[in-house]
Write a structure and sequence with these properties.
Layout: E1 2-4, E2 10-13, H1 24-40, H2 59-67
Antiparallel strand pairs: 1-2
GO cellular component, one term: cytosol
Protein name: thioredoxin-dependent peroxiredoxin
Keywords: Antioxidant, Cytoplasm, Disulfide bond, Oxidoreductase, Peroxidase
């Protein structure tokens, strides 16, 4: 599975052995995360979903996110 953005940039490659299924929900989450990071410049942590907290890519500002963990 390849996720390619609107600029033609390859953003994700997923390789599964044939007996292992793929998750449409996870693929959609990845596309939404790429769109969010492109628009806002924030970092989406593993498992991020739209509306969830993100990480500001700054040492001091990121502490807000990690303090909640």
């Amino acid at each position: 599975l390849f996720v390619i953005d609107d600029k033609g940039i390859l953003r994700q490659i997923t390789i599964n052995d044939l007996p292992v299924g793929r998750s449409v929900d996870e693929t959609l989450r990845l596309v939404q995360a790429f769109q969010h990071t492109d628009k806002y410049g924030e970092v989406c942590p593993a498992g991020w979903k739209p509306g969830s907290d993100t990480i500001i890519p700054d040492v001091e500002k990121s502490k807000t996110f990690f303090a909640k963990q």
